[in-house]
Amino acid sequence: MSLELPASFQTRMQTQLGAAYPAFAQALAQPSPTSIRVNQAKTALPEGLPQVPWSETGFYLSARPSFTLDPLFHGGAYYVQEASSMFLEQALRQCVDLKEPLAVLDLCGAPGGKSTHIASLLSPESLLVANEVIKPRANILAENIQKWGSGNVVVTNNDPSHIGQLTGFFDVMVVDAPCSGEGMFRKDPDAMSEWSEANVKLCSERQRRILMDVWDALKPGGVLIYSTCTYNLEENEENLAWLAKQQDAETLALQLHPDWGVTATELEGMHGYRFYPHQTQGEGFFLAAVRKTDGEEARPYRKSKRPFLVIASKQEKALVQDWLREPKFWEIVKHKETLRALPNAWMLELEQLYENLRVVYGGIELAEVMKNNAKPLPALALSQHLAEDAFPAAEVDLATALKYLHREDVSLEESANGWVLVQFNGVALGWGKKLQNRVNNHYPKEWRIRMSLDEALQPENLAKQFVLGGQ
Ligand SMILES: C[S@@+](CC[C@H](N)C(=O)[O-])C[C@H]1O[C@@H](n2cnc3c(N)ncnc32)[C@H](O)[C@@H]1O
Predict the structure, then answer these.
(1) What would the pLDDT profile of 165-198 be if each residue is shown by its tens digit?
(2) Angstrom distance (rounded) from CA 404 to CA 431
């Protein structure tokens, strides 16, 4: 495969890389590597897969399987993520004390690669706000957050300028900015057809606006991690140098292992890290960690008279009290018919978020309550916090798991009547309700597998190995 790179992009890269340009161009003609990041809260790390060097839970696959046909993918046991972007892990581990309870923002969150990664790295006592400005993309982010199952995450759908009004709210902010996508050319040829000099300029200006809009929401002393998947200086080093002129900001140096092949860069005292496909096994990527050296502290938040979060009644709480592993950790709130669990320690901050932002999803959606009856919701099935004995589980084979995820009728022979957690290889997929002579499939319509399963259900295909060794 050889890519027809835009002429002025080639000229730019020749200037930037000099003698290394032919190796770069050659690497772009190779297929892009496939990698996944494993959710250790749901499954063990695989044995025998080559590791992404800068991530403890990142692994390369030798080929790209049909992830849609792997139930563990739907169960949030792993996330398919480009390897270079997993370098975020190094920035967080090296610049932030992850044992502390932190308020963290992922500003440009959809579809959720970095948000799910951050959620796994934070302590359970932390709070992550995963934001996405484009509504349909915010819904996809919310779906992936529910499947990952962390619980201490709120998904919002706001413009950076709205979030910027939460002065001094966040200890850490990740800005994985929309960019011209030069680093994605071999993976996503559409990025190449949309590339132009004018678009690079437009992206750079938009990134500056985003950084300025959200800056006030970072605490003084807090860390902002800026990343793009593009190579040009305008969207990377030049933006950081510009930021340092506008605000009290300095970059933090990261320790690199020489084997990683990551390139350290510097412009006007601001440091960044570059991933080139001829030097690292991954796509093009840029990252810098910035510390805010001065600025306004958070103002004390005064709850408004009408609370935005309504605490559930004693009777309502009693319906779900045995469903979570550590009930004391959570506060149960009610909105319309829905009961949700939110981390107790963050209720004041959550009140502020619900008052000021458009919250698409928060905490763990537990149940819909009707006439003193609680119907468990999909997010609870996929939650890392579901109490083990709260519901009977039915382990199903691959064919049944796929039919369940396709929203077909399935039979769960062994289980008693009532709500049953459908699971594959020990990973929960969702709810079934067993009645006298049938099972109601409660997998959400919006999440169902849409492709035909005819071919996948052929015995020879069912026998194939899956990504994490299940079958
Ligand atoms: C590089 S993608 C984020 C990928 C994501 N962090 C992940 O790891 O899965 C950039 C995101 O920024 C969003 N975006 C576009 N314009 C924006 C703007 N003006 N302000 C903030 N975000 C924007 C896009 O919708 C897109 O989801």
Answers:
(1) 999 999 999 999 999 999 999 988 888 999 999 9
(2) 9
The model's pTM: 0.97
CATH 3.40.50.150 fits 85-292, yes or no: yes
User: 310-382 and 393-462: same fold?
Assistant: yes
Tens digit of each residue's pLDDT (9 = 90 or more) over 276-293? 999 999 999 999 999 999
* Token pair recorded at residue 100: 């502390």
What are the residue ranges spanned by the domains of the chain? Answer: 85-292, 310-382, 393-462
Which residues does a 6 A CB cutoff place in the pocket of ligand 1? Answer: 85, 108-114, 132-134, 137, 160, 176, 178, 206, 210
Spatial separation of the C-alpha atoms in residues 239 and 328, rounded to whole Å: 45
Gap from CA of 38 to ligand 1 centroid (Å): 23
Peptide bond into 111 cis (omega under 30): yes
> How many whole angstroms separate alpha carbon 26 and alpha carbon 162?
44
Asked if 133 and 159 touch (Cβ cutoff 8 Å), the reply is yes
Annotated binding site for S-adenosyl-L-methionine: 132, 159, 176
Whether 229 sits among the annotated catalytic residues: the reply is yes
**How far does the centroid of ligand 1 lie from the alpha carbon of residue 144, in Å?**
15
Please state which CATH class domain 393-462 belongs to: alpha beta
Q: Whose CA is nearest to atom 1 of ligand 1?
A: 178
Q: How far is CA 398 from CA 148, 234, 402, in A?
A: 21, 49, 6
Fold of 310-382: Nuclear Transport Factor 2; Chain: A, (3.10.450)
ipTM of the complex: 0.99
